[in-house]
């Protein structure tokens, strides 16, 4: 007790307990989990959203801090938060898959860059598509929807009963295949044109064996790839909106029963 008749320790412990789920979601979620976001900003956002959770839900943290039941409750909270962010991260892997397909077909699969968001090496085209998907995610208020899903998760999976069921874990595993499907569909317009070009170049190589394919095929692949990207980008942008909505719907399926 402080000198003002206020018990600060229980409220602080409840806030820290709530911040476990929120912070875990921000670690794996897109935008919030980028390396460019400072750790202090994530902690501040987790604390601010934790205050909202405490104001809207009657959260009862474990009575004892150093106890086995407390450690299990914290692990359950962390697993739920990681699952909420991981589902969205699966959807955001689709542009990287599309970048691999398009870059390999264009002959620039070697053009890799260090992604400042993840710190890993990824195709340049994949980074470009990832930036576009991130901008669409923000323009569709996806970050606000994610925060709303975190708040709703305390109703569907309150602390103390926050373990994911086998059905929910199965849905997360099956949603992992959506990244490959969405990446293939995202790269389909450009990939189809490049496939047609490769067929034409193959027929030319059979008709004129003395033709230098490297001097003809690589510039043609680059030119057709750039032009087809410029033409197909409006349709790719529309499908990126579908990817964002599918990722948010999969996240919503975890918190609404």
TrEMBL record:
Gene Ontology BP annotations: bacterial-type flagellum assembly; protein targeting
GO cellular component, one term: bacterial-type flagellum basal body
Superkingdom of the source species: Bacteria
Membrane topology: Multi-pass membrane protein
Compartments it resides in: Cell membrane; Bacterial flagellum basal body
Chief location category: membrane
InterPro entries the record matches: FliR (IPR006303), T3SS_IM_R (IPR002010)
Entry annotated with the keyword Transmembrane: yes
Keywords on record: Bacterial flagellum, Cell membrane, Cell projection, Cilium, Flagellum, Membrane, Transmembrane, Transmembrane helix
Transmembrane segments: 12-32, 39-59, 65-88, 95-114, 126-151, 172-201, 213-235
Function description: Role in flagellar biosynthesis.
Family recorded in the similarity comment: Belongs to the FliR/MopE/SpaR family.
Protein name (record): Flagellar biosynthetic protein FliR
Organism: Sphingomonas lycopersici
